[in-house]
Amino acid sequence: MTIKASVVIRCKDDEHVFECIESIDNDVEVIVVMNKNDNLQKRLESIGVICKISPPGNLSIVSNIGFDYASTDKIIITDSDTVFSPNCIQSMIDG
């Protein structure tokens, strides 16, 4: 199956990111753009999440890092405290 979308999660240093990831009910690429935190990064990578480190404080830069690393042309940008409702991502992919 081909991955049809990327979900870029902007995360400063937030444990809620795991709830966000758990709410993703589609086979999508998940990229977390975050401030440097070795422990959080290790835990995210252990569940198959792509992690990219960003400088703190600029949402535009954080979003652009996610765009640069996404391997699909459909990109959903969200924050780490988002919880997706069932089928929400599929609805966005389908347009």
Radius of gyration: 12 Å
Distance between the termini: 19 Å
Q: Which structural category fits the helices and strands?
A: alpha/beta
* SS summary, helix count: 4
Mean pLDDT: 93
The helix/strand series, from N terminus to C terminus, equals EHEHEHEH
Contiguous uncertain segments of 5+ residues: none
Helix content: 25-40%
Beta strand %:
15-25%
Strand order of the largest sheet: 3-2-1-4
What's the oligomerization state?
Answer: single chain
Instruction: Give the tally of β-strands.
Output: 4
The geometry reads as: globular
Largest sheet descriptor: 4 strands, parallel
Describe the structure.
The chain has 95 residues and is α/β, with parallel strands linked by helices. It has 4 helices and 4 strands, in the order βαβαβαβα. The chain has helices spanning 17-22, 38-46, 59-69, 88-94, and strands at 6-11, 29-34, 50-53, 75-79. The protein has a 4-stranded parallel sheet, with helices on both faces. β2, α2 (38-46) and β3 form a beta-alpha-beta unit. The longest helix is centred in the last third of the chain and has 11 residues, at 59-69. The protein is globular and about 35 Å long. It starts with 5 loop residues before the first strand and ends with a helix.
